[in-house]
Design goal:
- By secondary structure, this protein is mainly α.
- It has a domain of 144 residues.
- 56% of the residues lie in helices and 0% in strands.
- Helix 4 runs antiparallel to helix 5.
- The longest helix has 24 residues.
- It is globular and about 40 Å long.
- The termini are far apart.
- The N terminus and C terminus are likely disordered.
- Bound molecules: zinc ion.
Length: 214
């Protein structure tokens, strides 16, 4: 066996990213050399975005939301937990399941620490994290725990003064509006009527206070 020399030279520089995206698009059998530009986490996110429901129209909202999630530590881990959880289910890959659990644990720990120590416990990032926790729990976790997270979210929104107070962060506000009508496997989003996926909470999730039915 030849010694491990530096056979994957990187002096092709900018060619690497071009080759990478071409091969992703064409799906050819170019050898998979890990590019320093695309991490494993990025590739699973890419997988999720490219396989997202074709009925969903607001691609800009989806991509902006994912960008916001990635900027903040707790939401980033919970986003990755969701995406690994989905790929694990679709491809029955036990390694993805391990990744999902690992990110879920880290994201949840960071979130609870922030909730106890932050001056602004109901920050946009923390609310985003709870939204992701609701989506993960409903789709891949224990559905019986959804109510705990929903109650937390409702309290946080009340502390901020209601859904109207999120006009400065339209992408987060959009998710808050959408979560009641969200679809399975759609992260925190709803979809068109023609969508094949079931409603995640068929008529039994109320975020806004005052509309509860006993
Ligand atoms: Zn859909």
């Amino acid at each position: 066996m030849p010694s491990r020399s530096s056979s994957n030279q990187t002096d092709q520089g900018s060619d690497i990213s071009a080759t990478q995206s071409t091969s992703l698009a064409a799906g050819d059998d170019t050898p998979l050399t890990p590019s320093p530009l695309i991490s494993v986490d990025d590739s699973v996110l890419q997988f999720y975005i490219t396989t997202f429901c074709p009925h969903y129209r607001n691609r800009n909202v989806l991509e902006s939301a994912i960008a916001f999630m990635r900027e903040h530590e707790a939401p980033r881990h919970l986003l990755l937990a969701y995406v690994y959880g989905l790929r694990s289910r679709l491809q029955s890959n036990p390694e993805d399941q391990v990744e999902a659990q690992s990110h879920l644990g880290r994201g949840t720990n960071i979130l609870w620490n922030r909730l106890q120590t932050d001056d602004l416990a109901s920050s946009d990032a923390n609310i985003q994290a709870v939204l992701l926790l609701i989506a993960y729990t409903a789709d891949f976790g224990q559905p019986s725990e959804v109510r705990v997270h929903t109650d937390a979210l409702r309290t946080m929104i009340d502390q901020r003064g209601g859904l109207d107070a999120f006009g400065h962060n339209p992408v987060l506000q959009q998710q808050l509006w959408a979560i009641e009508h969200s679809r399975e496997i759609h992260l925190t989003f709803d979809c068109e009527q023609s969508c094949q996926n079931a409603l995640r909470f068929p008529g039994d999730l109320r975020l806004c206070t005052g509309t509860e039915t006993a």
